[in-house]
Amino acid sequence: MTVLCVRFELPPPYEAALPRLIGLLEEFTPVVQALPPDGALADLRGAERYFGRTAVELASVIRVRALALHGVDCVIGAGPGPMTARMALRDARPGPARAVPEDGVRNFLADRPVAALPGVGTATARTLCAYGLDTLGRVAAAPLSTLQRLVGARAGRELHEKANGVDRGRVVPDAVSRSLATERPFTRDELDPGRHRRALLSAAEELGSRMRAAGKVCRSLTLTVRYADRTATTRTRTLPEPTAHSAALTEAAYGLYEALGLQRARVRAIALRAEGLDPAERASHQLTFDPVDEKVRRIEEVADRARAKFGPRAVMPGSLAA
Amino acid sequence: MPGFTHLHTVSGFSLRYGASHPERLAERAAERGMDALALTDRDTVAGSVRFAKACAKAGVRPLFGAELAVAAPPTAPGARGDEAVRRDRRRTPVRGGAFIDESAPRATFLARDGARGWADLCRLISAAHTAAGLPLLTWDENHAGGLTVLLGPDSDVGRALAAGRPDRAARLLAPWREVYGDALRLETVWHGRKGTGPGSLRLAARTLGFAAEQRIRPVLSNAVRYADPGLGPVADVLDAARRLVPVDPAKGLDSGEAWLKDAGAMLGAAERIVEAAGFRREAALRLLEQTQATAAECLVDPEDDLGMGSVHFPEPHLVGAGRRTAQRALASRAAAGMVLRGYAGRREYWERMHHELDIIAHHGFASYFLTVSQVVDDVREMGIRVAARGSGAGSLVNHLLGIAHADPVEHGLLMERFLSKERVVLPDIDIDVESARRLEVYRAIIGRFGTERVATVAMPETYRVRHAIRDVGAALSMDPAEIDRVAKSFPHIRARDARAALDELPELRELAGEKEKYGRLWELVEALDALPRGVAMHPCGVLLSDASLLTRTPVVPTSGEGLPMAQFDKDDVEDLGLLKLDVLGVRMQSAMAHAVAEVERASGERIDLDAVPEGDPATYGLIRSTETLGCFQIESPGQRDLVGRLQPSTFHDLVVDISLFRPGPVAADMVRPFIEARHGRAPVRYPHPDLQESLEGTYGVVVFHEQVIDIVATLTGCGRGEADRVRRGLSDPESQGRIKVWFAQRAEANGYDAETIQRTWEIVAAFGSYGFCKAHAVAFAVPTYQSAWLKAHHPAAFYAGLLTHDPGMYPKRLLLADARRRGVPILPLDVNKSGVAHRIELVSESKGSAVWGLRLALSDVHNISEAEAARIAEGQPYASLLDFWERARPSRPLAGRLAQVGALDAFGANRRDLQLHLTELHRGARGGRGDQLPLSGGRRTAPAGLPDLTPEERLSAELGVLSMDASRHLMDDHGTFLAELGVVSARRLREARHGDTVLVAGAKAATQTPPVRSGKRVIFSTLDDGTGLVDLAFFDDSHDACAHTVFHSWLLLVRGVVQRRGPRSLSVVGSAAWNLADLLRVRQEEGLEGVAARLAEPGGAGAESAGDGDGPARRRLAGSDGRPAPAGSAARDPMEDRTIRMPTGYEMHPWADLRPAGDGPAVGRKLWHRSPGSAG
Questions:
Q1: In a domain, A168, yes or no
Q2: Which among A132, A182, B582, B1047 could disulfide-bond with B1158, CB atoms 3.0 to 4.6 Å apart, if both were Cys?
C-alpha cells in the first residue's frame, strides 16, 4: 500500500500545468513518475515512515495542497504497486483515495474486465474475450500454459502474474512527458489532398515549434487520419535522426500521408503526434555540405524568436497564410 | 425567329446524372413551344420508349440518341499510353476506395436515318458495354453510317480547345472527320461559367471559331440535365452519388443553367457566343438554323423504325416446325397431344382445340406457342421442375403441348381469358421453374436460340426514400451512423412523400422533431424521387425474338452473371413488340424438389409430387388446423385466418381460398358471404337460374374472372371473347357507365326481366376488375396442395427443403421453431454429418413408424463460401481436429464459427479449447512450424482449461452464426420473467375467451401494414414464443403509443384484447407494446422494481396526437401514379381526405400497403444481446 496514482483535473492548456503539480508530489517523495497528459505515479514507501502517516492519509494531504496551491482538484488511487494504483484510480471519485489493500488485490481484480489491466490493449482483450476469459478472475484461473498459448510466452506469463495480483512494476522517477500531439479537424468530409496537406503542414509546424520551445526533439512521428464513419488509420514512421526541425517533420508527415494513397476517403480530422521525446542537447545532427539546410534552420530560429515576441501567427509558411 | 431543338438532353435514365424524367422533359418541351426534342442519355437508350410515348402525347417529335465515352484513336496524339501507365501506378488507397474514373472523353450520337440509325445506335451502345469497367466505345467500333455525331466540350476536341490548343484539336478532329465526314458537328454550350472550361463563354466562342476554320458545321446546345431551372443542387447531389464523394462547393457546383431553355433564351445565348467569337450578331440566327437543320435530318419514327407495335417471333425452323409453317406444326403437335393424353375420343376436346387453333391462326401466334413449348421441353429435359402459371393455363392447346398441367376443360378454365380474337395484346404465358436453377434455364434458352435472339430484361432500380436519404446524406457530408438511423426509421415509401410521412406517421414523430436539423436534406430527397439509380436484371423476363434483336435493342452484359440484357424494362419491351417469356424462379419449387430428393436419398422412397393422391385427409386436416407455416400461398397471417374460417376440404376449396385472399375480393367483401353460405349459415342465392351453373361452385358468390365472363356471355349472348373485353372495361368508371347501358339492352333483348338484370349488374359492377383469374388460382393451388402434402407426410424433408431454399415470408428461425413444435427432431450441425444443404436423418425406428430428424446444413453458417461447404462435405468423415483442418481447409474464422456452434464437438467437448487448438493450427500453418498438437490420444483434443460456453453463450453463438436458435427456442430462457409478468403463451391463448385482456410476448416474425377494408392503417404483426404463433393487430388509436416500438424492436411484450372469429381464428388487438429485450435487461440489472418503474412510464399516447387538419401530406396519394413531382412541389396532388378512394368505393389509408419501417423481421444476432464474454 505504498504507491499512489494521481490524476489531476487540469484546466486547459492541460500539459502546461503538469510540471508544477509533479513538483508538488516531489515534496513528498523523490520517486515520482509523470503520466502525461494529466497524471502521475508516486512511490510513498519512504514517505510513509518519514511523515508518519499512511499512504491514504498522505493522499488527502496531497489533494488539499493541490487545491490550495494550484486550484486543481485531483483523483487518487492507492495500491501496493503501480498496476493496482492505476486500476484503483479508475474506480476513484474526487474525494478520499480509492485504496486497494495488499491482501485484497485478487478480490479487487476478480470481476474487472480484462481490458482494465494496464498493458492489455484492445487486441489482447479481444483475443482473451474470444476465449471466454473476459474477467481477470477467469484469467487468473486459467492455466499458465494456456495463457501463453493464447498471447505468447512472455505476455502470457506477465498476464498470469498480473491477474493473480503479482505486480512487478516499479515507479521510475523522472520519466518525462514522452509525446506531443495535435489535431486538425475538418468541418465537413474533406477529400481534397491539397487541404489535407495544409493541415499536415500546420500540424507539423505547431509540433516543431512546441518541441523547440521545450528544448526537445522527437524520434518518430505518428499520423492518425480519422474518417467520417468514426474509424481511423494510424501510421508511424521513425525519423532519420531525432529532430524538432519543422521542415523535417513536415516532410515525414507528407511521406506518411502519401503512403496512405487516399482518394475517396471522407477525412474528418488529421492528427500528428511526435513520439520518443528527448532533450535536444542529447540529439545529434548530421551536417551536410548543402548550405540551404543550415540557412533554413537559422531562419527557423529567427522565426521562433519572432513568434515568441509577437505571437504564434507572426511568422508562418506562405501556404497557410490564406 | 427560328425555333430551337435541344440536341443534347439527358434524362434520369442517365444513371445519377440526369435529374428529370423523360416524360417531364417532353412536357416541358411542348410547353416551351418546341417542335422536337432529342433524348441522348449517357450510355443508354433505356428511356426512349417512355420518351417516345410522352412525346406523342405532348405533340413533340422525338429524336433518339446517346452519349458515349469514346476511346482515343490509336494514332491520335497523347494516345501513347503513358497516361494509362501513370494511372496504374497510383497507390491503392488504404481506405475509402479509388476515385471513379470519368476521364474518358464523351461524344453525342444521334440516330439519323430511320431504322438504320437506330440499329447503329444500338450496335454502338452494345459495343461500348463490352468494355471492362465503365462503358467505353473503342475506336475500332466507332463507325456508323446512320448517325450524326456532336463533339461538345466533353469530347477530346473540346478539351483541347479548352486547354487553348487549337492545333491539337485540329489533329484530334482528323480521325473523326475521316469516319463521320459530313455527319460531324461541333457543339457549343454556354452555361455562363467563367474561365475556359466546359460551359464557359470563351470555350463556346473558341469552338465556334474553330468550326468556321475547320469548315465543320457548329450547333448550339444547352447540354440539358434537368427540365426546370433551380435543379442545380439536385444535379450536384447526383454527381456526388455517382462519383461517391461528398458535394464540395470549393470544387465547383453545377451552374444551374443546364435546363430545357426555350428558343428565346437559346437565341440570346447564341448571340453572346457569336459576338464573343467575333462574328456579326446575325450569325446567331445562322447557328440556330444549323441546329434546326441537324435536328431535321434526324428522322427516326418510333413506330416504323423502333418497331413499336409490331411483333417478332423466333423463326419457325428453330422451334421444331422444320419446313412446314408454324401453324401446321402447331396443329399436328396439338393433335398428337390429344392422343397422348387420352382425349382422342372426346368430341368437346376436339372442338375446343380447333376453336383455339383458329384464334391462334387469326393472330398468327403459332410460333409463340411453339417457342414456349420448346422452352418447357428443354427445361423438363434438364430435370428441372416446371409449371405454367397465369392465364395461359386456360388454353387447351397449352395443355396439349405440355406447357400447362391442369386440364382446362375439367377445371372450367376459359381460353378467352387468355387470348381471343377481340384481344389484340400479346398473350402472356408465365412458367415457374425451380429458383435455384433459374439461371441454368436462362442459359439453356440462350443456347437454344442464340444470343442474337435472346436477352434478359432490365429492371431500373429507382430512388425510394431510404436510398435517397442515404445518397443525399452522403453527398451533404452527414455522419454515416446518423444517415443510417434516419434512413431506417422510414417505411419503404416513395421519396417524394418523405416530409409528408414525417408529419403524419406516429413512428416518425421523434425524427420529425429534429427535422430542421437536417436543412436541405428533405427537399433534395424528394427531388430524387423515382429517378433510376441503377439497373438490374429483371428477375423473370426473357426476351425472345428473331435474328433482328440486336438491331432493335442494345444488349449489355449483366453485372453478376454476364448474361445478355436488353436495356429496356418489361413495359418497354412489350411496346417494342419484343416477345417476353416470364420464367419465374419459384423457391417453393426448389424446396419441394429438394425435399423429394432428400426422401429418396435417405429412404429410397420415390415420390412423384405431380401424382400425389388427391383429397388426402391428412393433408386437408393439416390445412384446416391452420398450421400452414411454409406452405405455398397459405402461410401468411391473413391466409391462416382465412383458411381457419373457410376450412377447405377439396382442391376446389383451395382454389377458391387462394382467389379470395386478394385485395379485390377482400375489398369487395366477398369473403364473408362466401363463408356464411359455405357453412350453411346463409342461403345460396343466384340472380337467375341460368347462372346457377357458373356460380354453383362458389355458393353464388362471384370469385373468378371466368365467372364474370360467363355471366356476361350468358345474359347478353355475346361471345366469351367479347365478354372478356367487357370485363376489362369494368375497372374504368367511365367505360363502366357505357357497359351498363349496353348490358341492360342486350340482356333485355335476351328476355331477362329488369330485376334480374339489375341484380346481376350489381354483382358484376361490384366485382370491378378485381377477383382473380381462375387459371392463376388453379396453377397456384397445385403447389399449395403439394407442399401441404409434403408437410403432412414428410415433415423433416419438407423443412429441409424450406430451410435450404428459404421460401416464404418468415425468417428461417421461425420455420425451425415450427419444426420443433411439430415434433421433428432438430439435429445440430456436425462436420461429420451435415451436408451442404439441409438433410434428413433417421433418428429412431420402431414397428414401421420411423422418426426422421432434420440435420442442419453447413451452408447456413455465416459467411461460408460454397467451395468451403462443398469441401467439408466431400471430406467426411474426419477422424480428428487435425484431420479436419488439413483436409477440409476451412478459413480460420469459419473454423472458429463451426466450433462455436458445436459442429466440431466430436473432436472435444470444450468449444473454447477447440478454438484455441484451431488458432494454433492456423498459426502453425502460417509459421511453417510442425503440426504438433497436444493430443490426449485418439480423436479428441486435449483440454486446455478454458471456461466452456455457457448455455446462453451457446444460444447466442447459434443466433450469430446460423441466424437460428437451433438447440432450443430463444424465448425458453426468459420463462421465469414471463411467468412473473403473467404472460400467456401462444398455446394457452387458444383457450382464452373473446374479449379477455392478455399479455403476450415473443420474437417478432413478420410485420405488415396491408390495405384493409376500413381504410385505416392497421399494423399486423406475428410473434413467435416457442409454443406457437400469436397474430397481433394494432389499430389507429394505438399507433401513437405502439408503432415505433413495434417496428423497431425484435422482442416484444404486448398487452391486448383477444378477438375470436371462429374456432381456429384468433388474434390479439394490441393496446400497448414494450421492447422485451429492454425489459429483460432492466429485470436483470434493477430487478422487478426497475421493471415496474419502466412500465409506469407514460407511453406518450394521447399527449400530442396528430390533430393537424390538413397537412400537405394528407393531400397526397401513395403509389397512385408513376410520375414524380418537381423538387419542392411534391405536395400538389389534390386529395381531400386522409384515405384514398379506390374506383370501387374501397378506401385505403395513404400509408397502408408499404413495407414498414425498421429492419424487417428479426433474424439472427439481433434477437440476442451479445455479452462481452461471448465467443467471437
A1: no
A2: B1047
How does pLDDT run across B736-793, given as a tens digit for each residue? 888 888 888 888 888 888 888 888 888 777 766 566 788 888 888 888 999 999 999 9
User: A262 contacts in B (CB within 8 Å)?
Assistant: 93-96
Residue the block writes with cell 459442429:
B903
Are B1176 and A130 an interchain contact pair (Cβ–Cβ within 8 Å)? yes
Pairing state between β B555-557 and B826-827: unpaired
Q: Give the span between the Cα atoms of B689 and A84, in whole angstroms.
A: 97
Q: Whole-angstrom Cα distance, residue B864 to residue B327?
A: 52
Asked if omega into B877 is within 30° of 0 (cis), the reply is yes
How far lies B512's CA from each of B117, B382, B471, B506, B1099, in Å?
A: 52, 55, 20, 10, 18
Which among A129, A143, A266 has CB closest to B1173? Answer: A129
pLDDT digits (tens, 9 = 90+) for B856-894: 999 888 889 889 999 999 988 888 888 888 888 888 889
The whole-angstrom separation of Cα B817 and Cα B806 is 14
Test A261 with B94 for CB contact under 8 angstroms: yes
b/e per residue, A92-115, with b = 16+ CB within 10 A?
A: beeeebbbbeeeebeebbbebebb
Instruction: Domain of residue A280: give its range.
Output: 179-321
A13-17, B76-80, B531-535, B1018-1022: segment of lowest average pLDDT: B76-80
Q: How confident is the model at residue B77 (pLDDT cuts 50, 70, 90)?
A: low
Place of cell 414428410: B794
pLDDT at B34 over 60: yes
User: Is A188's Cβ below 8 Å from some Cβ in B?
Assistant: yes
pLDDT at B98: 86
Which of A120, A149, A160 is the best substitution to test chain B (most B C-beta atoms within 10 A)? A149
Nearest to B1000 by CA among B1073, B1095, B1100: B1073
Residues A68, A48 share a domain: yes
Question: Is there a domain that residue A196 lies in?
Answer: yes
State how far the Cα of B974 lies from the Cα of B504, in Å rounded to an integer. Answer: 36
Are residues A236 and A152 located together in one domain of the fold?
no
ipTM of the complex in this document:
0.74
Number of domains in chain A: 3
Interchain contact, A134 vs B1173, CB within 8 Å: yes
Query: Cα(B429)–Cα(B582) distance, rounded to whole angstroms?
Result: 7
Q: Which of A266, A267, A268, A270 to mutate to test the interface with B (most CBs of B within 10 A)?
A: A266
Q: pLDDT at position B58, please?
A: 92
When scoring B87, B89, B95 by the number of chain A Cβ atoms within 10 A, the one with the most, hence best to mutate, is B95
The mean pLDDT value for B1116-1124 works out to 31
Residues B602-609, mean pLDDT to the nearest whole number: 87
Residues in a beta bridge with A224 = A234, A271
pLDDT in tens, B391-433: 788 889 988 988 887 788 888 888 888 888 877 677 777 888 8
Establish if A173 belongs to a structural domain. no
Give the model confidence (pLDDT) of B103-150 as tens digits: 899 999 999 988 889 999 999 999 999 887 889 999 998 988 899 999
Domains and CATH numbers, chain B: 22-78+102-297 (3.20.20.140), 316-460+537-588 (no CATH), 464-529 (no CATH), 615-785 (no CATH), 794-947 (no CATH), 985-1101+1108-1164 (2.40.50.140)
| Eight-class DSSP state of B921 | H
Contact status of A152 with chain B (Cβ, < 8 Å): no
**In chain B, what are the helix, strand and coil shares in percent, each to the nearest 5?**
45, 15, 40
Q: Nearest-CA distance from B930 to chain A in Å?
A: 15
- Span of A271-275, B388-392, B822-826, B828-832 with lowest mean pLDDT: B388-392
Q: CA B963 to CA B956: how far, in whole Å? A: 9
